[in-house]
Amino acid sequence: MNKLLELKNVSFAYDRQTVVNRVNFSLHEGDYLAIVGENGSGKTTLLQGLLGLKTPSAGEIVRRETLNRLQVGYLPQQTPLQRDFPATVREVVLSGRLNRHGFVSFYSREDRKASALAMERLSVDGLANRSYRELSGGQRQRVLLARALAASNGLLLLDEPTAGLDPIVAHEFYRLVRAINRDDCATVIMVSHDIHCVMHDATHVLHLGRSQLFFGTTEDYLKSVVAASYLSHGETVSHEPACEGGIDADGTPTCGCGVSAPLEETPESDKGGRFSADDPDGHRHSRGGRCSANGEKERG
Fold first, then answer.
1. 155, 4 in Cβ contact below 8 A?
2. Alpha-carbon distance 179 to 288, whole Å?
3. pLDDT digits (tens, 9 = 90+) for 227-266
4. Contact, 153 vs 72, CB < 8 A?
5. What is d(CA 295, CA 298) in angstroms, rounded to the nearest whole number?
6. Secondary structure class of 299 (helix, strand, coil)
7. Can you give the pTM of this predicted structure?
8. Domains in the chain, CATH or no CATH each
9. Which among 31, 142, 185, 298 has the fewest CB atoms less than 10 Å away?
């Protein structure tokens, strides 16, 4: 199993005040880590450390030699200024390749090809010449995910990517991330408060409370005291391998995450194919296995 990164007693501080204390975990290729915790628990700070934007005040982050921190796909929390960015979709996705060039600002043929593939993969190639600020919230997040994918060398960091999206659009976004993780063997680290949906897909959970309260498999987390105290109103998140559909109070079909959605069985995606913007979920929420050394997914 290929270990991608490892944190050894890592802490972060601002003005000598520790905000994340003694975090220890490791990830392998194809893992999907959900980072959860209350506001102010240090989740975003930890992502900044993984990106190399903040230096640990203690401990060590060990990255695999082939994992260049400048080739990590990153989707940050959105701000009003970012939503009004005056650029085309093509330019936004292509900008994900800038970190690979240092002071050289010219895009190579490889950059343009990678960006085109990422846009096609997420079905935003038809929006390539559209202004980014004219897009809907769901379209913007899909474009930013394509940007992160174009930048990525196998690791995606996503910070509250569904904040501000309506439930249906958020559900579709989770489906896209799930398919990228499984079909492309991409390793995903996602910060999210939407614990009831992200738990269906994550292989591992890191729960922060300024220190590490839990790290382990999703199944073990859902059985833990930490999870029991965190989940609101005594609700539980199923760790069954599939997300079953049902009917909500007004008779609307829903998926197991509680999102109203069609219940027709449709393919989630063709392996290595593109994702349709209006493709129903298909209700296939089973978590896949890890990626083997040759890039194939090991189901377990």
1. yes
2. 10
3. 988 875 444 454 443 344 443 444 444 444 544 443 333 3
4. yes
5. 9
6. coil
7. 0.79
8. 1-72+154-242 (3.40.50.300), 82-151 (no CATH)
9. 298
